[in-house]
Amino acid sequence: MERAPERAGAAPKRPEQADIALELLVHGVGGTTPEAMLGDPRTERITGDDTAAVFRRADDVDAESRPEDYRDRPVPEAYVWCNLTSGNGARALWLLLLPFMVVNLAHWMRPSARGRTRVVRCYGLLVRLAGLTLTVLLVAAVCEVALDLTAWQCAGIEACAARHSWLGFLSPDVSHHGWWSPPGRRLALAALVPAALTGLLWYLSHRTWSAYESQEPRTHVREPEETTDRTALGRPGFWYGRRLVARLRAAHTAAGLLTVAAAVGLPAARFDHRLGGPAALDLLGRLLEGLLLAAAAVVVGVVCRRGRSENRLDQHLDNSLVRWLPLGALVLLTLTLVYAAWERPKWASSGRLPGDETFGAIAFVQGLLVITLAVLAHVLHRTHPDPRAAMRGLGGPAVALLACALGGVMSGGVAQRVADWLDGTRTAMPGPPVLLTWQASVIPPLLVLVLLLCAGLGLRTWRRARAERDAVERDYPGEPLDSTRSRRIARTRALAALTDRGPLLVAVVSTSTLLLGAGALVGALTTDETPADAGDRAPAFVQGAAETAQALGSWLIGLGFILFVTWGRRAYKDASARRTIGILWDVGTFWPRAAHPFAPPCYAERAVPDLTWRMATWTEATGGRLVLSGHSQGSVLAAAAAWQLEPAVRKRVALLTYGSPLERLYGRWFPAHFGPAALSALHHDVHCWRNLHRPTDPIGGPVRLTGACGPEVDRPALKDPLAYGRTERHPLPAPILGHSDYQADPAFAEEREHLLARLRPALPAPRAQDDSGRSSA
């Protein structure tokens, strides 16, 4: 059942309403239903739409008009936002945008840096440039497949074109010679594929912005005592990055189109620059090269402009140069296609297009950006050291490197598999660029290193599980011991602790990727041979290892890309797969698109304003108390929404978090926004805060505030399971809950009642009934 929007909380304030309390529940990763959150099959939508909405039980819809019925209990409400991430099967295809999402995360992983504004801006600039190289890499990979492997190599070889009848009209064979047979025209036709992909990315970025991120936050006049140096999440424009996303979308779209233009025009220009070529075409080619270089400089300049405007709600867009940049690049691409399609009787396709130089330059620039980014992150971390920060502040550069590696794996996988499909024997076609083969060859040793690390972590977990058995028995004194039960609980605790070893895994993988990638780049650019060819001059063992690494790496890199596509297709038909993929985006797309406009959209730019508006309007309408109750990722949304409230409203709010990754994940990986200073500020800004956690929870953990704030916020770890053996209250074995069902623990209701009791004395009384209100409080 549904009701008209804004029914609850819209009634005029009445004096007796000041004692009413609201519990606003926010679910976590994976989503749920309002019926499950509220424990009632009869729920009604109070406000919102089919994407995200607030629900109440049918009996509680008009609770504000009956405050006397809620003197002893709060009114429960559920904010359901799961459709923002996992409500549509088509969103599973966002897996293909994974490198863009990962590099966007690197932007937010910088260390805290109060007073180092220039270094922070330079850090953000380098991440945006890394994101730009990923766009160029993706489009270049599609150009490699469509232009080089298909239109240039296979269509230009009679034997290959004969095996694929759909390429017959492109064949230069005399019997099939047609208008599209010249190399330039084949390239111009094939260029429509990467150009269409670039247009699709532009469309998706624009459409998802309108659907997810165009909600304006609730603005208020900032009071003098408010500070924003502890965390940026409380700034008015943090959750509304319209101007930057529009600017980056224009720049990246133009960069993609210019990459296509370069892939088509440069081979034709190289042919025209030879001695004896037509003077007119030679001059036109040099003119187009100059225009491409100038346009590329403009694109880089647009990306290098100042980043996000978080201190105010930025409603304006950039000047006409930025807005018309994609159209200008499209016009230049059109001119390049016409230029390449011009008749050149002596031009024939042979060998490869200049892909090695392109992919080599991209890999070199990405490595240089990551190393510089690591230097800046180290400087920021040393300014304000945070012992809990992941990798000592180097998490951002490591994740940026992994994003580049993912882009390379996906690019190489597509090229390798298409080359095998077009010419499996590799006897007629030269194949993909040598650099992609070298990059594929480093995959097996990297996987061996990762497997060794996982084996070490597994041994460490086994030892920890054995050590935890004594702790389990101490937590349940007087219980008859059951070795099987104790082992199961201890193993769950040990596996949950693996989350804290995530920085080690990322550090090893990123460092190994950087070293192996540098070796592959040097090998490809200095020898111009594949690893197997280079191994022919080495001993038999080395030659065999090189051939094995090249073949196995080629299959693995292709298999990884096929798994991405298969998983995406499966999500169209399988609701459980769609839900799993949605969980990935719950964690990865919390942050706004600050580094890459083609990343999956930020659901928090819809969810945080929703929560802020609901809390502010309800407290203004009723003057009541409010407990903001967040589980898992919902606790992160709750904290972000609390920071957006006015100080007067924030002091009416109590925060209850459980299974919360606020410190364990966000505090370690995003120290500038969820570090110790930010979480301490949140504790002081809200009226009161209580956090619940379990040792068996792999995601949630304690907040770990220092001093007296720590015990005040963190309740001692909850027992899980609630009962070791069978008891009168638990006649059947109690399950190990881990990250789920915190409300089943009696501690949840106990802490909620304590928070409501602590809220009541601090409430200001309604103005019309000042005396009576003070005495009742």
TrEMBL record:
SUPFAM superfamilies: alpha/beta-Hydrolases (SSF53474). The keyword Transmembrane applies. The keyword Chaperone does not apply. InterPro entries: AB_hydrolase_fold (IPR029058). Coiled coil: none annotated. It comes from the Bacteria. Keywords: Membrane, Transmembrane, Transmembrane helix. The chain crosses the membrane at residues 122-142, 187-204, 250-271, 283-304, 324-342, 362-381, 393-415, 435-459, 504-525, 549-568. This is Integral membrane protein. The lineage of its organism: Bacteria, Bacillati, Actinomycetota, Actinomycetes, Kitasatosporales.
